[in-house]
Write a structure and sequence with these properties.
By secondary structure, the chain is of the alpha+beta class. Helix content is 32%, strand content 14%. It has 11 helices and 12 strands. The strands form 3 sheets. A 6-stranded antiparallel sheet has the order 2-1-12-11-10-9, with helices on both faces. A 4-stranded mixed sheet has the order 4-6-3-5. Strands 7-8 form a two-stranded antiparallel sheet. Strand 7 and strand 8 form a beta hairpin. Helix 1 packs antiparallel against helix 11 and helix 2 packs across helix 6. The longest helix has 17 residues. The chain is globular.
């Protein structure tokens, strides 16, 4: 047993399983950390950034983390609530007046952060538009994206609109009048020492950036204002996409996860209060299914499970179901994930932290099964 209280044999097996996956070309490679009580039991970089296995992954490889970006936006939203700049009961239209019209005037920050807004599940507010400029995205949402049902009735995961609106709300209510990307840098990344994380691909990170290889597993494209190709938004230096636009490393995301494991503070930097995290780790969607993942479950013949969404975090919950956090995780396990490639979670009961970023985007259900398997092996290492 290691200092972390983790079985070295099980962690070695976890590494072997990932190596076998890469050899079978299920994905190109992975960087992973598994830790307990804050002590790292496994830190490994396996495979490559590319399909040809010519660019070995490094501990400091920089990945596009896709929807894990939502975690950064959500944490800063909760922080703004703590500081009295916002309230979970605040209506979006009160801060973004051009969002007026119809049922969407009833939407609050609580609805956005729990994916119960009643807005449609969209990847772009207007077909063919570039997505890397927040101001243009907000203008398009206000013009084209209207409620399909009253807020609070269903849990329909929002790929774009909810966190785009939250990012804009952070900008409009910031006492210093800073852009969204600056708020993230100064209020979250810098205090946590996440020096290889940025909104957009910061110039000094480009040489380490693992450009996403979607491998035909994502139907939509992600065009950018500089015309860098069909998925160029993930290569833009100044992109501001509060829903998918961050890049990071596994060590940096481990610091974020450790802040959450330690009830909101790390190395003297207090980001959130224990009271906020206690509230955020509750299941606020009850037994409602996640409508997006309900469709995916039906494709495989799986029984849809409850969404289990807190305030900005996904939760494991109690159902016996397919889940990226594993079937062995305690019900209070919480974290975030990103399109077919990125995952972190914290199991408070076992004091266990898991962070994994991978190259080569997988199909959604294959990804769920992959991370469920890896998570279960990691959890089984706890002694």
């Amino acid at each position: 047993m290691s200092e972390a209280g983790l079985s070295e044999a099980r962690l070695a097996h976890l590494r072997t399983v990932i190596e076998a996956d890469v050899k079978r070309r299920l994905y190109h490679g992975a960087v992973i950390i598994v830790a307990r009580h804050g002590h790292i039991g496994l830190q490994a970089n396996i495979g490559s950034a590319d399909e040809q296995q010519t660019r070995p992954l490094q501990t400091n490889s920089v990945f596009s983390i896709f929807s894990v970006t939502k975690a950064l936006t959500n944490i800063l939203t909760l922080r703004a609530v703590e500081l009295g700049q916002l309230a979970l009961t605040t209506k979006v239209v009160d801060l973004i007046p051009e969002f007026s019209g119809g049922l969407r005037e009833q939407i609050t920050l609580f609805h956005l952060i729990t994916h119960t807004s009643g807005l449609p599940m969209i990847w772009t507010p207007k077909h063919g538009m570039y997505i890397d400029r927040l101001a243009d995205i907000i203008a398009a949402i206000c013009k084209y994206v209207h409620s399909v049902e009253p807020p609070g009735e269903r849990c329909a995961y929002s790929p774009l609109a909810n966190q785009a609106l939250l990012g804009e709300i952070l900008r409009r209510t910031d006492p210093k009048g800073r852009p969204y990307r600056t708020i993230v840098e100064e209020d979250l990344l810098r205090p946590l020492g996440m020096s290889s994380t940025s909104i957009g691909v910061r110039a000094d990170l480009k040489s380490r950036h693992v450009v996403p290889d979607f491998r035909g597993n994502v139907a939509n494209e992600h065009p950018s204002s500089s015309n860098l190709g069909p998925n160029g938004a993930f290569e833009e230096e100044h992109a501001e996409m509060p829903w998918v636009g961050a890049v990071s490393t596994v060590p940096d995301l481990f610091r974020l996860a450790e802040m959450l494991r330690r009830n909101g503070a790390l190395d003297g930097a207090r980001i959130l209060s224990p009271a906020t995290l206690e509230l955020a780790r509750r299941n606020w969607t009850g037994d409602l299914p996640n409508e997006l993942y309900k469709v995916l479950a039906h494709k495989r013949g799986w029984v849809p499970s409850p969404a289990y969404i807190g305030l900005g975090f996904s939760l494991r919950g109690t159902a016996h179901c397919h889940h990226m956090f594993g079937t062995l995780a305690s019900p209070g396990t919480f974290g975030n994930y990103g399109a077919g490639s990125a995952l972190y979670w914290v199991d408070p009961e076992r004091d266990l932290t898991f962070v994994c970023l991978t190259a080569g985007v997988m199909e959604s259900n294959d990804n769920i099964e992959r991370f469920q398997r890896l998570s279960d092996i990691a959890i089984s290492a706890a002694e």
